[in-house]
Amino acid sequence: MRLIIVTGMSGAGKSTALKFFEDMGFYCVDNLPILLIEKFAELTLRDENNASDIALGIDIRSGRELPQLQTIINKWRENSYPFEILFLESSDQVLIKRYKETRRSHPLSRSGRVEKGISLEREKLAFLKDEADYVLDTSKLLTKELKKEIRTLFSRDREKSSLFITVLSFGFKYGIPSDADLVFDVRFLPNPYYVEELRFHTGMEEPVRDYVMQGGTAAEFLEKLMDLLRFLIPRYEQEGKNQLVIAVGCTGGKHRSVAIAHEVFKRLKEAERYEVRMEHRDADVDGVR
What we know:
Strand content: 15-25%
CATH topology of the largest domain: Rossmann fold
Strand order of the largest sheet: 2-3-1-4-5
Radius of gyration: 25 Å
Domain RapZ C-terminal: 165-283
Binding site for ATP: 8-15
CATH architecture of the largest domain: 3-Layer(aba) Sandwich
Shape: elongated
CATH class of the largest domain: Alpha Beta
Number of domains: 2
Pfam families: PapZ_C, RapZ-like_N
Domain RapZ-like N-terminal: 1-157
Oligomer: single chain
Structural class: alpha/beta
Protein name: RNase adapter RapZ
């Protein structure tokens, strides 16, 4: 288990960074009172059943308690606690621009100029920047680039994508899934519904899958589909997408779509790069298929 202190200048992207840590499986806590941090860390590190990494957001909102964090850091370093500090930095010009765009006041200049609040904040956070294991300047980073930097620094499996893919089968007669990113229609394939011994089975069963795959059309379609997905998925990653829903539909969502979704899931899983799950929305819905 690791503990990452995520800190830095207000407006530099700490809240966004914490969301990325959460997507990576970290248990995230923001703005915990300084007086509780040491006890919190002690309890979590002592819990043998807790396998979650932790990202702890700390910033200028801690107020007068903030200097006490130096004592805690010194103690942790002396006791070899498994923690790291990420400090998010940004130029004054960029921070001022961000505050103007969001029309929010700086926490240290509620009724004054943003510039003065930023200057005072730099002074108060200087010790944290000095203690930081990583200082990340977000002045010129897009959101997707910030995500990539955080993943590069803190992901346990840096070869594995953070994109979570759901392969979903469905029936067009029940509507296209509202959360689908990609929708593929497989109603052109052989339909097991018209085979008496297969009608009341699903594409999760081998005889149904064999029927759908007969003739070579399904196999050819799968090759073209996987080629398309190999092209598209990395580009979704580059744009910072966290979840991708690939929906495969037939008339009732029981035979053809289930069989093809099964094959797509299996091939994506074999790549061992993505977190992939499979869901059959309508396979158990009663009614004519």
